[in-house]
Queue: 4 jobs
Job 1
Amino acid sequence: MSSSSAAASRAAAVAVALLSVGGFLAQLPVSDGHAYMMTPISRQLGGTTPFNQEGEVPVNFCPHCYQSRGPAAIRERSGDKPWPHYKGARAANGNYLESDEVAQRHGICGDPEQTAAEGDNKYGRENYNYPVLGTYAEGGVLEVKIVVSTYHWGHVEVFLCDTADLPEGEDSIVTQSCFNDYPLDRAVDDEFNGPIDPNYTGRFILDPPCRASETDQDLLEGAYPGDVATARYQLPEGVVCDHCVVQMVYYTGNSCKHEGYADFNPESWPSSCAPSKADWINEVVGQCGDGDAYPEEFWNCADISITSDGGPGTAPRTAPSPTPEQEEYDDGSTPAPSMKYEEDYDEPTPSPTMKYEEEYDEPTTPAPAPVEGGDDDSSSMDGGDYDEPTPAPTAELEPATPMDSPTEPIVATFAPSVPPPVSDHSDCEDPVGAFNQCGGEGYDGSTCCRAGYECEEMAECYSECRPREDRCSEGWGQCGGLHWEGPECCWPGAECIERNEWYHQCVPEGAVN
């Protein structure tokens, strides 16, 4: 199947899934991942079972796990430099900005997934691999719905890239400098979804968990479950595109707080269950980027078009043919590109299903948008210093079960930690990591899982290491709260803290002041 026909069939599969899938993913247990963008439909959600034809692409069972393997791996790729956004470059609306060089610390859309091999790249390939799944009106409102499986405080920022502006052409790989051209502002009438900081008009402070009892919790049919948080963003005037890419970045705030949090004191917060700043912003931690404080970050991308009236755009483009230099497998597909980092890593096992370039050149960086903040202007973002309206698709929705509203303020209390459960496979020499394959048709690898996980059949052809029901939560995982049915203990090195009556969290020792 060619790249263009594969993209077209995926678009058709998404349309069918939105209207008719029986909620396969809604029956799966929530994993240790954290958040993904549901609308506009992200590449991550588009990679899950309901949105794919059988055997078309590798199924993504964890759309909310795209944090580029976490802070330790991200920092290692950067050459062990501190978090780049501390006193770093800002857009005029306060959004964090990265040059293309600095952005090499992570996959442009969050790859690799948290348990994937270094260099794995599902969603940062050439744009022709990903179909446009929504159409919006020029200058209209982009409603962003984020599904949160594990609440880690913090905020979301949203960017837009018109692929026609990419130096290598609209079918090439999207770049951070292209996203920097359009850091989106919250819509002016969006205060009911969350207060807007006048100094950071692109920020959406993530809803506290109890807000799920107060807000629209409808999920797209088949979407992976979690609490739904909604924010409305303003699309820029004058931007019309056959293929634009939306980037959502979730900056967590459980291990450190972000610049501007301390000074943001709105008159009120739009919630009866979370009426105070302490319910929305965690201020008992240090500053992100100060010293070794490096927050967990998540990236998602979504493919949309923008027309003058919100109607259908031009016909999809055909994908370019592979270049003569491409190495091909026996089935005609080409190996995945390794992301260009400052150090070399082992090549991951390539996916034999989608056509894309074996390697890509460093993108040519266009002049970034004007910035405010930092010691220098935008022309100095070279990565060396770190001081630094409605979408077209509609769906038949099924509301989530609302929770009762909490009444007590946040109280920090500590519960004892207990050791994690031991592995069922004491003689296992090669345990499979969390959320990796451990069985299925044609699989010949290890079938035992790391401690705390067990091999669970997800489909007849695929089994995966999933958390055991009796395992303890790892660092920053949930460990209690009303209606919580998961583990109430923490792995060694973390303590269970009562954030409020609805949410208790395993906090690593030394992370709380």
Job 2
Amino acid sequence: MALRHAVLAALLDGEHSGYQLAKIFDVGVANFWYAAPQQLYAELARLEADGLVSGREVVQHGRPNKRVFTVTEAGIAELAAFAAAPGKPLLIRYDLAVKVHAVDGLDPAPVIAQLLERAEEAAAKLELFERTLRRLRGDLAEEEFLRRGERVGPYLSCLGGCRLEREMRDWCLATARVLTERAATPAGADRPADPAPSVPSVADRPATNSEREDPR
């Protein structure tokens, strides 16, 4: 998947400026693709040059004019070809998971702090995505919206984002709790003490040669 496909998918909802597109990415597309505003503006220019989107100037009184974009038939065909192509394996590079993996040889305090911070971020994203879901379905109950909603794709992708962030929040909190409890318990404090090694009595040890020869 390339950024162009995410931009084309976001423009399916209608005509948007680069600024509006950046807002859409922050709220609706962020759960599966991150892009900075500068990347979006550059990609829009490339898409227009390739004929996949069309742009037009909108005159605004009292404000700078803006350029808005819509997907062309060629852009729809590009999305259709992308949707039909085999998907690529998901590549995960998550530095916090690497830190947790190596925590046994490290000071756990910074890792715990980062886990709690990431849990807060996940909770904030989850709240944002849930608000987006409520806005998308309007007055309809979720089950009814999924049956007959006008645009179910953005809703389903946002549902996936909710589940990912919920799992991330729960994993971070549970992992931080385990590491905190382990740090508060000295190593080996919960294990029973090893029994003292038994020392053989004189009667148990084998007799020496001199003792066997001495009849006393």
Job 3
Amino acid sequence: MLQVLGTLVLGIVSIFTIFTTDSCGTSTSATVPAVCDSDYFGGVLIGYWISLVVLVVVTLIAIIVATARSAAVWPWSVGGVVLTFVATIVFFVLISR
């Protein structure tokens, strides 16, 4: 449940990455931040949201299967959190290029 809540928070916070720069300028050049390119930003943002949803669904399914088999659940929980953290780092790296 904590991962679902964390994913929702990350999804909402990711919308505000558009404000990571103070100005987008008026010209398109190599120095314009990635958040100013609406096509690129939109693609990365939607891709990030999709990866968050996939991670939550896969982690929850893995936890349910592990519980049904009486196996340890914590590796799946920790794995889901770690992969969510990695996806968030990749998202911010792509946005800050």
Job 4
Amino acid sequence: MRSFIIGSAMAGLLLFQVGSCSQGDQQNVKDQEAAAPVARITFMSGDVTVKQGNDALAAEKGQVIRSGAEISTGSGASAELFFKDLGIVRIGSDAKVNVDAVAANEINVGLKSGNAGVFLKKIRAEDKFSIHTPTSVAAVRGTAFLVTVESDEVSRVALFDGKIEVTDEKGTSVVMDKKGELVVERGKTIKGSDVQPLSEDALARMKDMAVFEKSQVMEYNTLLEELEDSEWMEDLQVESSVSEKMEGLDNQADRPADRVVKAQRAEENVIRRDTEGDPLKIPAKKDFK
């Protein structure tokens, strides 16, 4: 009898544990399903991980990113997030980013480490998009800029086009509406006079970011056309070392025609699309959902 009672108790315990795990897994799936889709990975290279819910898995091109997700890139890795009706965020190496949909028309991107290049179209007045770092918040309205987290104490915001409002941890804000760079340090209050000309480092980082691949998403391709025609791209005059890098990337590509926007130096010192076999002329058949 004693043996039977112990066996029954053990069976009950095992059943309870299995049931609990199952319920936990089901809840995790429900949580992920409930989280609103906010972006899609349109490009990635190297070691990229996405954590959604309790699961941290290797990222995949085309993967939908839901609210609350965290994206991490390894050494030498990069990823590109496409936000429907908003634009593109390029994540550099050794970066950690979380994405949250605060409301139907409000997106917050948290950059915990590394750097991110932001390429947005002119968004509607009711839409809100902001980049959070350990020391600042950059509220955006149709712009191109670079954010770098150097440490928990120092962040940099480099504006190339458009307008952003940068707020420090004390709540003091500086509106940037011209090309320039602002360093935000923990414990220090920012002011307009802190904005400096774009640094060589910021220009170099943005050059690396401003390389895109074609997509079957019509809205994405339209955004690329807008970017290549932007005046701010003139600031990204590519030096020979970058040109060599792009030639190397083209040689490594299985299908060179897939690269529709390449950073290269033209005689008129502007960045233009490689129109040879221009894939943008092919009607797009898919849309972002």
